[in-house]
Design a protein that fits this description.
Elements lengths: L2 H25 L7 E8 L3 H14 L3 E8 L1 H9 L7 E4 L4 H7 L14 E5 L3 E5 L14 H5 L6 E4 L5 H16 L5 H6 L7 E5 L2 E6 L9 E3 L4 H7 L5 E5 H6 L3 E4 L17 E6 L10 E3 L5 E4 L7 H12 L1 H9 L4 E7 L17
Parallel strand pairs: 1-2, 1-3, 6-9, 6-10, 8-12
Antiparallel strand pairs: 3-14, 4-14, 4-15, 5-10, 5-11, 7-8, 12-13
Helix pairs in contact: 2-11, 3-4
């Protein structure tokens, strides 16, 4: 064999080896792009949702979950009016989703921002406080409204225009007046407002009208229930209307209202009134300003304009699955058997929830 022939064969062998070494790489699938999954939830869900975020990301390193919390009304407005690009939303009042999303159409579309949701969790309402709160050693389930009525007691109330805990606080105060047979209780606890918040009673119905501007003279009003926690812990207020799960997560003392007014069940119906809170103006384009008193049930959905619907579905299955259930239990936030609204619109990947009894 001459050197020319040997060189030609060597070149062929080298090229063949290079081709073989490159072939697996050329045939392997391209690396998947990272995804930022935006989850917007009610403030009372932030603690468990933050842990769900960590656990989900550990199993799905390609996905960066971005969780943020707001009052429930604000959560939906971020989707319908601010076009925030949310992939999953969860609110403390499930009825807000059909009221504020089903019939509010996306731009240049006849489709609403959502057409299904899942009820998945509950809570109870009461008062959070600390050992340093005024009269902390005196307050009981029988005298809490008398304690809050004292002029030196500072009470925090979530803003009913933005937060479900806020309009539920108004409902609880009015129902308490019935339960304790005290017609002045609502005003005594909440005090005066420059523009009055006024219950309107007719027959067996009550509508609490909330004006466009709230300027309280006695209570401290903040945009969401979780914002009140900081000023409660700092001692700037003595008590705050809160959910049980939130108080337990923060290690606060908690006085749970009686079943007839804590909205953890439908026992409030035994008092015999239909009750609602009405926002007495149309401030936001998507806001249906009429909140009906009902049992506390949280709702979750994937907005129709989710930028990452496949990843959102996967996240939601994780949230509602065994790992999400474990995390919620650790954060004192009870799940309920899942109920699907408009099951005909539920994504196929969530069809297993129907009739699951979970």
């Amino acid at each position: 064999m001459n050197w020319r022939t040997y060189g030609q064969r060597l070149l062929v062998a080298l090229l063949a080896g290079s081709f073989l070494s490159l072939t697996p790489t050329a045939c392997s699938p391209a690396a998947q792009e990272p995804v930022e999954l935006k989850v917007i939830c009610a403030g009372s869900l932030m603690a468990p949702f933050t842990e769900v975020e960590k656990a989900y990301e550990a199993q799905n390193p390609r996905v960066d979950v971005l969780t943020e919390g707001h009052g429930s009304v604000q959560v939906i407005r971020y989707v319908t009016e601010l076009e925030s690009g949310a992939d999953v939303i969860a609110v403390a009042d499930h009825s807000l989703i059909p009221a504020m999303m089903y019939n509010v159409h996306m731009p240049d579309s006849s489709r609403g921002y959502a057409d299904w949701y899942i009820q998945f969790a509950t809570n109870t309402l009461g008062l959070a406080y600390t050992s340093d709160s005024r009269y902390a050693d005196e307050i009981t389930v029988d005298n809490w409204y008398e304690i809050l009525s004292r002029p030196d007691v500072r009470l925090g109330v979530p803003d009913p225009r933005f937060d479900a805990c806020g309009y539920r606080a108004l409902m609880a105060c009015w129902l308490a007046g019935l339960l304790y047979d005290d017609g002045d209780l609502f005003h005594a606890v909440l005090g005066d407002f420059e523009y009055p918040i006024s219950p309107q009673v007719q027959d067996r119905q009550c509508t609490i009208l909330v004006p466009e501007i709230i300027r309280p003279q006695k209570v401290s009003v903040r945009g969401s229930s979780v914002v009140l926690l900081g000023i409660l812990e700092s001692g700037d207020i003595d008590y705050a209307f809160e959910y049980r799960s939130v108080a337990q997560q923060r290690g606060l003392q908690f006085l749970e209202f009686p079943p007839e007014i804590n909205l953890g069940s439908d026992d409030f119906r035994s008092l015999g009134y239909d009750l609602r809170v009405k926002i007495d103006y149309q401030r936001f384009a998507s806001l249906i300003p009429d909140f009906v008193c009902q049992e506390i049930l949280y709702g979750v959905t994937i907005p129709a304009n989710s930028p990452h619907p496949e990843e959102a579905l996967d996240y939601l299955k994780f949230l509602l699955g065994p790992e999400g259930r474990r995390i919620f239990a650790e954060h004192h936030h009870p799940f309920v058997p899942f109920v699907v609204d408009r099951p005909e619109h539920l994504p196929d990947d969530l069809g297993y929830l129907l009739g699951s009894g979970q």
